[in-house]
Amino acid sequence: MNFNVSTVNLINMLFIASGIGICGLCFLQISASVHLQKVVRNYFQIFFTLIITYISMHLARQLMEGIPGSGIHSALYIVTFIEILSAGFTAHMISMLILSVSKAEKDAKAIAVTLFFLLIGHIIISVIGGSSELVYNFDGANIYHRSSGYLLSNICPFVMLVIDIFLLIKYRSNIERRVKTTFWIYIIAPIAAIVIQSRFYGLQFIIFVSVSAAVYMFSVIVQIQNERLKSSR
Question: Structural domain of residue 39, as residue ranges?
Answer without folding.
Answer: 5-228
